[in-house]
Amino acid sequence: MGEPYPKLSAHALTRTFGRGAGAVDALGPLDLSVAPGEFVCLVGPSGCGKSTLLRIAAGLLRPSAGTLEIRTSTLRPAAMIFQDYGIYDWKTVRANVRFGLDIQRVPRREANARADEWLTRMGLADFADAYPAALSGGMRQRVAIARALAVEPELLLMDEPFAALDAQLRWILQEELLELTQTTRGTTLFITHSLEEAIVLGDRVLVMSARPGRIIAEHRPPFPRPRSGDIRDTPEFTSLKSELWDLLRKEAVLA
Ligand code: ADP
Ligand code: MG
Fold first, then answer.
1. For the chain, which ranges sit under pLDDT 70?
2. Which CATH superfamily is domain 8-77+153-254 in?
3. Ligand 1: which of 13, 14, 24, 46 to mutate, judged by most atoms within 8 Å of the beta carbon?
4. Quick one: CA dihedral 58, 63, 68, 69, positive or negative?
5. Which of 16, 30, 51 should be mutated for ligand 1, with most atoms under 8 A from CB?
6. Which pLDDT belongs to residue 154?
7. Phi-psi category of 30—alpha, beta or left, where left has phi over 0 and alpha has psi -120 to 50?
8. pTM of the predicted model, to two decimals?
9. Which of 87, 108, 172, 214 is the most exposed place for a label (fewest CB within 10 A)?
């Protein structure tokens, strides 16, 4: 038996920015539940409230109404990867990856070993002592991913982590993420504006409406795990993509 409770659950969650005539209804009301081990992808038009939702989940922002609850069973934290990396230029690559472990007061020797392990997995072993300025955008992004995964989060929150990368690197990192989450059975809430990415990665793909974002559709891509990017070549992939695209296009017009 798995754990019975969702890792994340939101009920009638809404967020408004500002007051009075200038108020912006950014999100909701939205209901969402992410089960342990599940990989949920959220897609929606630009400005529909996706980042707002993730910031609330990460505890960086309060809801205006409704609730969002994260239920972790250990002291391991939820980790978040922002689209804009958020790595520190004055720390070495290894120290960046070790950052979350330092906060958890993991002893230095063990923290270094775990950081190096993740750097190796991300193909960055040779850059452990380098500073981020020496890295390409894709490598910096992999540092951010290694840093988030090194703390072995129970819940991984990712906000368009691959958006700034070129198509080829994006594919490579999608494969790596598939492999990682299929091995570790972590729980992931992944935001993307790419339907392909959502279908490749997700156990479930949720489509959000134009602002204020609500969930208007839910699909389970019919591809068993372990899964690889090769599913892109199947007719099921193409038909699900065009179905979701029709939905999203209507919402994009409203946005
Ligand atoms: P998405 O990530 O889906 O593109 P966001 O969650 O970033 O959308 O934003 C949703 C809406 O809320 C947008 O209209 C945005 O301008 C607005 N918004 C987001 N953050 C703030 C803020 N701190 N203050 C005012 N408005 C905000
Ligand atoms: Mg966003």
1. 1-3, 74-77, 82-85, 255
2. P-loop containing nucleotide triphosphate hydrolases (3.40.50.300)
3. 24
4. positive
5. 51
6. 85
7. beta
8. 0.90
9. 108
